[in-house]
Automatic annotation (TrEMBL):
Transmembrane segments: 6-29, 77-98, 130-151, 157-176
Major location (coarse): membrane
Name the record gives this protein: Mechanosensitive ion channel family protein
Name of one Pfam family that matches: MS_channel_2nd
Length: 378
């Protein structure tokens, strides 16, 4: 009877103590979260209750299973399994605690500087994301190494592994050259302030927003809901446009091709009226001028401003659409058109034809009418 009750008491006691301590800890964290609304730390720490309970259970059972006479013939295997569970759950708990602390610190920083320096906030967000990935990777590697060292075979082979570590490191470095270059490029992007999460970029002609940055790849969310995944080494070796670099304010350009008779002064006044009714215009500046001419059209350019890349797109499309609609309604003659009117012959071509013989169809050149820009051959 004692041999039956002892295992039940040890295992049941470990489970009950784990549930009680876990419930008490979660209750205290919940009360602290309700009392301190200015910080998210206590609420985020509650995410670690599962690994916390696993640590408690593994530690309690690991320390008392010898007294319970559990599986005497497999005691070493049971102890090994509990040790592995303890190491894995402890690593999981460390990652959750580190994530809660880092996310709380970032939230405080972002709430204090979101309106004054949004570019700096995006930079810190990128760095925090990569730091958390590095911390998770380091903790995972340490936990895996600790698990392997619990096996006697690995401890015996440790000396030979250390002796060959130099050669293996060289071979691995050559084999993983691309991966290592991307990893170092990820650190360079994070701490070199080249590109940040939330930046508006143009890469290979694609316009979008940086959605995710890891140590090896970067994801750009395009305006048409596509995701472009690129190695981070691309951004350290090739040029790209970062519209969010420095101040987010931007100047946009709108072009029109109009007829030579277009009322440029009236277009300039209409541009002012359009911008006044456009909420995306920041009111800083605007301008309209003729920048080029062709034999059939004028090239008119408008400069407009906005507070960021999203608004400048809205301003540009609004100005382009409203100006074309206004020209079509009020000044249709100003729209570009193909000249199909009959060309007038020069005055030097009198009724006698100035000595030019009539054409093969018997019509004198002075009586022939030409279309477009065509002229008779002399």
């Amino acid at each position: 009877m004692e041999n039956l009750l002892r295992p039940l008491i040890v295992v049941g006691g470990s489970v009950v103590l784990t549930l009680v301590i876990g419930w008490a800890t979660d209750f205290l964290l919940r009360k602290a979260d309700e009392r301190h609304h200015e910080t998210q730390l206590w609420g985020l720490l509650r995410r670690g209750r599962i690994p916390y309970q696993l640590v408690l259970f593994a530690a309690l059972l690991r320390g008392s299973y010898d007294e319970a006479d559990l599986l005497d013939d497999r005691r070493e295997g049971l102890g090994q399994a509990l040790t592995l569970l303890l190491i894995g759950s402890a690593a999981w708990l460390v990652i959750r605690i580190a994530g809660a602390i880092v996310e709380t610190s970032y939230s405080r920083y972002a709430s204090a500087r979101a309106h004054r320096d949004p570019a700096r906030v995006r930079r810190v967000r990128t760095q925090v994301t990569l730091i958390m990935r590095v911390v998770s990777a380091v903790v995972g590697v340490v936990a895996t190494a600790s698990m392997l060292l619990t096996f006697p075979a690995f401890r015996a082979a440790g000396a030979s592994l250390l002796a060959s570590a130099g050669i293996l490191g060289i071979v691995a470095g050559v084999a993983a050259q691309s991966t290592l270059s991307n990893m170092f490029a990820g650190f360079q992007i994070a701490f070199g302030d080249m590109v940040r999460i939330g930046d508006t970029v143009v890469v290979d002609g694609e316009w979008g927003t940086v959605e995710e940055i890891t140590l090896t790849f970067l994801t750009v969310h395009t305006w048409d809901e596509r995701r472009i995944t690129m190695p981070v080494s691309y951004f350290t070796s090739k040029p790209f446009e970062n519209w969010s670099r420095g101040t987010p304010q931007m100047t946009g350009i709108v072009f029109w091709h109009v007829d030579h008779t277009a009322p440029v002064d009236a277009m300039r006044e209409k541009l002012r009226d359009i911008l006044r009714e456009c909420p995306a215009w920041d009111g800083r500046a605007y301008n309209l001028c003729v920048t080029d001419t062709t034999p059939s059209t004028l090239q008119v350019r408008a400069l407009v401003t906005a507070k960021d890349a999203d608004d400048i797109w809205t301003v540009r499309v609004t100005v382009r659409e409203e100006m074309v609609r206004w020209l079509a309604d009020e000044h249709p003659y100003a729209l570009p058109r193909v000249n199909t009117a009959d060309a007038l012959l020069p005055p030097s071509w009198n009724g006698n034809g100035n000595g030019h013989p009539p054409s093969q169809d018997g019509v004198p050149p002075q009586q022939r009418r030409y279309h477009g820009s065509a002229r008779p051959e002399r």
